[in-house]
């Protein structure tokens, strides 16, 4: 059980806050995934959409790891309307004895098994990417991965791409002028030379400072300075995609988190690196502006920067003993 949870928690989350808890009930062989409300980001995630997406990404990893172990993860999202903190339950049935159910059971594989090698290889990259375009076949595959989780992934082009880049960069600039947001960013970042934490973003994962280019990469240094941090040129035309869902509530956010992680795992297997760009999404009034004014539909839940470039470094995770309880 510890191995499954460790692989689940390799998922990305805003500021690496890791806002999840797991409880395993041996009698029913069920893992419950709950939100850890002590890890809320009130400035950057006022609606808790980001918290749900991070937990959704952990849920996808759990499903992948379970299938890899020959189990069938029978997954129910938001199983108790009276308990919004309980986000999902996963009953771990033996694939040999499980019976198909119409509403909750995974297909025998559903393409999840192939994603397993990427769980521990996927890391957020804040490095420059090359100008090499993603082949159309790769874009279709990534869009298909999102579709398998009930979401839509659309790659941006033309004026809409430039508009979204400008919106994200402006949103980050506004955040730097907010003392509350700067304090929150400072709380979740740390200097690896003098500190050690099991969460948050260490300075070695900040990536270089931008000298040129227009990649919408968050600068986790905020208004601070990291001594010796290099300045480099990023790509001028980043390859961005929008991940959208039909609705905009907790169930949709969990669905989007699973879709995001499925896309990122497949991208990793295809030799791509990725960076979630949430700056504009952190301001609820800007979400509608991200959507394509002509062809856009649904609710934008994530902006993903994908491309060919260095993978990011491994960032810390809390020990399993801190996130998993076992009992009735």
Q: Could you outline the blueprint of secondary structure elements for this entry?
A:
Layout: H1 2-8, E1 20-25, E2 30-35, H2 49-68, E3 71-77, E4 86-94, H3 136-148, E5 152-155, H4 158-176, H5 179-187, E6 189-190, E7 201-202, E8 209-212, E9 231-233, E10 239-245, H6 250-269, E11 273-276, H7 287-290, E12 299-307, H8 320-323, E13 324-326
Parallel strand pairs: 1-13, 6-7, 8-9
Antiparallel strand pairs: 1-2, 2-4, 3-4, 5-10, 10-12, 11-12
Can you characterise this structure?
With 328 residues, the protein is of the alpha/beta class. Strands 3-4-2-1-13 form a five-stranded mixed sheet. Strands 5-10-12-11 form a four-stranded antiparallel sheet. It has a two-stranded parallel sheet with strand order 6-7. It has helices at 2-8, 49-68, 136-148, 158-176, 179-187, 250-269, 287-290, 320-323, and strands spanning 20-25, 30-35, 71-77, 86-94, 152-155, 189-190, 201-202, 209-212, 231-233, 239-245, 273-276, 299-307, 324-326.
């Amino acid at each position: 059980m510890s191995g499954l949870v460790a692989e689940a928690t390799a998922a990305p989350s805003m500021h690496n806050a890791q806002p999840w808890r797991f409880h395993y009930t041996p009698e029913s062989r069920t893992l419950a995934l709950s939100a850890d409300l002590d890890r809320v980001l009130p400035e950057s995630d006022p609606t808790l959409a980001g918290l749900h997406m991070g937990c959704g990404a952990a849920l996808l990893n759990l499903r992948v790891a379970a299938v890899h172990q020959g189990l069938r993860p029978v997954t129910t999202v938001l199983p108790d309307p009276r308990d919004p903190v309980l986000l999902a339950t996963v009953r771990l049935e033996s694939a040999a004895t499980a019976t198909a159910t119409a509403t909750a059971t995974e297909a025998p594989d559903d393409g999840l098994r192939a994603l397993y090698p990427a769980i521990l290889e996927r890391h957020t990259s804040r490095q420059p990417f090359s100008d090499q375009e993603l082949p159309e076949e790769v874009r279709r595959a990534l869009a298909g991965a999102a579709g398998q989780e009930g979401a839509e992934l659309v790659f941006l082009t033309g004026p809409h791409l430039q508009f979204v880049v400008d919106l994200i960069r402006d949103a980050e600039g506004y955040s730097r002028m907010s003392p509350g947001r700067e304090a929150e960013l400072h709380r979740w970042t740390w200097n690896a030379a003098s500190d050690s934490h099991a969460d948050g973003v260490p300075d070695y994962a900040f990536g270089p400072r931008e000298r040129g280019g227009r990649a919408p990469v968050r600068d986790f240094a905020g208004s601070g300075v990291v001594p010796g941090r290099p300045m480099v040129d990023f790509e001028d035309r980043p390859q961005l995609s929008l991940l959208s869902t039909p609705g905009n509530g907790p169930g949709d956010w969990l669905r989007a988190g699973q879709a995001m992680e499925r896309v990122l795992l497949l991208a990793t297997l295809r030799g791509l690196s990725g960076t979630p760009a949430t700056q504009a999404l952190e301001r609820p009034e800007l979400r509608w502006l991200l959507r394509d004014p002509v062809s856009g539909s649904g609710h934008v839940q994530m902006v993903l920067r994908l491309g060919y470039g260095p993978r990011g470094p491994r960032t810390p995770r809390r020990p399993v003993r801190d996130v998993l309880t076992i009992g009735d």
